[in-house]
């Protein structure tokens, strides 16, 4: 049975970045667990439904765009808000992730103000 989490999921292969993001989200009262890479993330997404996902794009193996495409194809997950947080500041990357279903895209390092704004835009924060 799939469970709905009352927390988000951070997907990033960089432990330092993911842990820092988790701490910033705690300040915003948005608890999240961390999956350090796409493989651990896919295991979580196979059995649990997070409140939201913060997703890195540039990861080895399955990259973030493939994870996002998977989320949007899965009927259990396809309405879940996804915030992309990446170091890739190319306009074509932004256009692509928004087209395939991200609610927002932030450039690393994300500030707490930018996170708060993105989560408000995504309807996660009031």
Topology record:
Layout (H helix, E strand, L loop, with lengths): L2 E2 L3 E4 L3 H13 L4 E4 L2 H10 E2 L3 E3 L8 H10 L8 E5 L4 H9 L4 E4 L4 H10 L5
Question: What characteristics describe this protein?
Answer:
alpha/beta, 41% helix, five-stranded parallel β-sheet, 126 residues, Rossmann fold, two-stranded parallel sheet, 19% strand, 5 helices
Structural features, described:
- Helix content is 41%, strand content 19%.
- The model has no long low-confidence stretch (mean pLDDT 94).
- The strands form two sheets. The chain has a five-stranded parallel beta sheet with strand order 3-2-5-6-7, with helices on both faces.
- With 126 residues, the protein is an alpha/beta fold.
- The chain has one domain: 3-Layer(aba) Sandwich (Rossmann fold), CATH 3.40.50.2300.
- The chain starts with a strand and ends in a 5-residue tail after the last helix.
What ranges have pLDDT less than 50 throughout 5 or more consecutive residues? Answer: none
Q: Provide the structure class.
A: alpha/beta
Which architecture would the CATH scheme give at its second level? Answer: 3-Layer(aba) Sandwich
Overall number of structural domains: 1
What's the story with the biggest beta sheet? 5 strands, parallel
Share of residues in helices: 40-55%
State the name of the first-level CATH class: Alpha Beta
End-to-end C-alpha gap: 30 Å
Rg (CA only): 13 Å
Determine the CATH superfamily. Response regulator
Q: How confident overall, as mean pLDDT? A: 94
**What are the secondary-structure elements, in order, as H or E?**
EEHEHEEHEHEH
Beta content comes to 15-25%
Number of separate strands: 7
Strand order of the largest sheet: 3-2-5-6-7
- The 3D shape can be described as globular
The CATH topology: Rossmann fold
